[in-house]
Amino acid sequence: MADEIEALGAKALPFPLDVRDDTKIEDCVAATMKEFGRIDYLCNNAGALWWKPIEETPMFRYDLINSINSRGSFALSAACLPHMREAGYGHIVNQSPPIRTDKLAGMTAYYISKFGMTLGALGIAQEYKGKGVAANSIWPNTLIESSATENHALGKPEFWRKAEVLTDAIMGIFSQDPNVCTGNQFIDETFLREWMQETDFTKYQCVPGSEPPTMEQLVEKMGKFDAGRAKV
């Protein structure tokens, strides 16, 4: 990824990071400040999966997904916020779903960890309102082509969109005034339509001519993506 960034003419600072390691988080933030002198944007996209019912969720799995998802995003945000506050500018985006309680069955532990990320974004938005620091969450409207969808056999390519739909939405959020665009629980397609006036979503189709179903439609069709196969 660093090579791809630098091929576009930008500078990259690759840093191996386990978001469960507080010392490594501090080292990463310190290295970033030393190299670039500021931190304008943070996207918390590290994540772990465990899609099984409560009785089939060992506590070590529960602890693992929560330490990576909700705790990891909280810790990394907390380490970056002082620098954003001092600069009077910053955007934090957590890749996590809007909070709702009607679709928990079979994925309760996972949603606890992901809703924790969303709550973290909402809390930051409230605490830093009017200070030039924004926080939002974002979630895809469809499955996204990735190692997760491929390795866990979550549907077929015609059910997926390219990752660019999500990255375009995140970059769109970063382009907004942080005093205006904050405290939202975004869906990528909705954001692109309403905030970026995007109308052509065919360019995001993994299979040209095949518009993928939404996640909710897919859940109903496939029974939570045969979630028993999904493992950390």
List its salient traits.
two-stranded parallel sheet, Rossmann fold, about 230 residues, alpha/beta, single chain, globular, 4-stranded parallel beta sheet
Can you put this structure into words, describing what you see?
The chain is of the alpha/beta class and 232 residues long. The protein has one domain (2-229): Rossmann fold (3-Layer(aba) Sandwich), CATH 3.40.50.720. 45% of the residues lie in helices and 10% in strands. The chain has helices spanning 2-7, 22-36, 59-68, 70-87, 108-127, 147-151, 164-174, 188-195, 215-226, and strands at residues 41-44, 90-95, 133-139, 143-144, 160-161, 185-187. The strands form two sheets. It has a four-stranded parallel beta sheet with strand order 1-2-3-6, sandwiched between helices. It has a two-stranded parallel ribbon with strand order 4-5. α3 (59-68) packs parallel to α4. The model is unreliable at 225-232 (pLDDT under 50).
For the largest beta-sheet, the strand count, sense and barrel status come to: 4 strands, parallel
CATH fold annotation: Rossmann fold
Please tally the helical runs, counting DSSP H or I stretches of 4 or more residues.
Answer: 9
Query: Would you identify the CATH H-level superfamily?
Result: NAD(P)-binding Rossmann-like Domain
- Helix-and-strand structural type: alpha/beta
CATH architecture: 3-Layer(aba) Sandwich
Share of β-strand residues:
5-15%
- First CA to last CA: what distance? 23 Å
